[in-house]
Amino acid sequence: MATILFGLLKNPSAMKTVTEEIRSTFASEDEITVASTSNLKYLDAVINEGIRLGPPSSVTVPRVVSAAGAMICGQWVPGNTLVGVNQYPAFRSPTNFSKPNQFIPERFLAGAGFDDNHDSFHPFLLGRHQCIGIRFAWAEMRLVLARMLYTYDISFDTQPSIKDWGEQQTFIFWQKDPINVRLRRRQM
């Protein structure tokens, strides 16, 4: 969530677009529910872009190559070898995403003209190892962001010391600097 807010506050046009989408969709905060936020395309794009730039975990989830071995990215990998893909470099690789270090939610909108490799973007993993909480996480992010952006005008209280969220330290989880924001209840 912090990465998403950071990206929105650093990109006023994205903040304006997602805020307008939310405020034009709902007449009151009471209308904002898990179900009613599931069709907000730009909000979903904003969340995906925030997750892409700041994946929740910095560790690689290992997998074991089958006993017979396998070709992976053109390289032979012997059987029973531990392999994994670190999300941070995969999600910020120019091989997978154009302008990879920029917050551009439009890359996740159909027909937006980006030639990005969305097959490389699986922040909740795939298959039997997919995060069991994926639906809950999406519901929570949509609901919290939609209610926050509907109710408040948000701005930086103080300018952050970093320009890119990825400049922060990471071990198993991110060692995040605080983002001081100002929330002003919007006039309706």
Automatic annotation (TrEMBL):
Q: Which cofactor does it need?
A: heme
Q: Name one Pfam family in it.
A: p450
Question: What are the protein's UniProt keywords?
Answer: Heme, Iron, Metal-binding, Monooxygenase, Oxidoreductase
Q: Does the record's keyword annotation contain Thylakoid?
A: no
Q: Where, in this chain's numbering, is heme bound? A: C131
User: Which GO molecular-function terms appear in the entry?
Assistant: heme binding; iron ion binding; monooxygenase activity; oxidoreductase activity, acting on paired donors, with incorporation or reduction of molecular oxygen
The record's family statement is: Belongs to the cytochrome P450 family.
PANTHER family xrefs:
BENZOATE-PARA-HYDROXYLASE (PTHR24305:SF29), CYTOCHROME P450 (PTHR24305)
Supply the name of the protein: Cytochrome P450
Upper lineage:
Eukaryota, Fungi, Dikarya, Ascomycota, Pezizomycotina
